[in-house]
Write a structure and sequence with these properties.
182 residues, single chain, alpha+beta, four-stranded mixed beta sheet
């Protein structure tokens, strides 16, 4: 792959490679969202009146933030807002975002339009070698991140049975008391 120089007059194939790298970084350096990058705008500050039809990458003086206002489970969880703390992702965004500009889409197609969810899914499949889209990335991430949790839950269930108790009683009555005693 040839070295990419970031400059204002990038050719589309260079922009596409850079955007692929941005997508790769976001989906590997943060817990993977669904296809919600496809309607993400870059803004320089959070405001209460940000349009709920979009999601936002906020580039503020306090750092980078992701603000999800338009996603599948917004009815349950409302606006999801969190600070990006991954140092490597921050360095990547520092290099890339000046070329997006305030109020522009984070990821665009060759026609300068935002991606549809299906187009974003296809792009993710291509970037991650036919991984199967966001759902597969989310399964992979959660399985790797919390694999030990399954073992702990099994051990807790086995212990609860031997103590003639339930997991809930152990967690509520005993484990919390141990934490309080420390």
């Amino acid at each position: 792959m040839k070295k990419i120089n970031l400059k204002n007059d990038l050719e589309y194939f260079e922009k596409e490679e850079i955007q692929d790298f941005i997508i790769f970084c976001i989906y590997t350096m943060l817990p993977p969202c669904r296809n919600d990058l496809c309607n993400m705008l870059v803004v320089n500050e959070y405001r209460e009146d940000l349009d709920s039809d979009f999601n936002y990458l906020i580039n503020s003086v306090d750092g980078y933030f992701m603000c999800y206002k338009n996603y599948k489970t917004v009815g349950l969880y409302n606006t999801c807002y969190f600070k990006i703390k991954n140092f490597n992702l921050i360095k990547v965004l520092d290099k890339y975002l000046p070329y997006c500009g305030d109020g522009n889409y984070l990821i665009i197609s060759s026609k300068g339009k935002p991606f549809s969810k299906s187009s974003m899914s296809q792009r993710i499949c291509r970037i991650f070698s036919n991984v199967g889209g966001c759902t597969e990335l989310r399964k992979w991430y959660l399985s790797n991140q919390f694999q030990q949790l399954f073992k702990i839950n099994k051990a807790l269930d086995d212990t609860a049975k031997m103590m003639m108790n339930s997991r809930q009683v152990i967690l509520k009555s005993y484990i919390q008391k141990l934490q309080e005693d420390c």
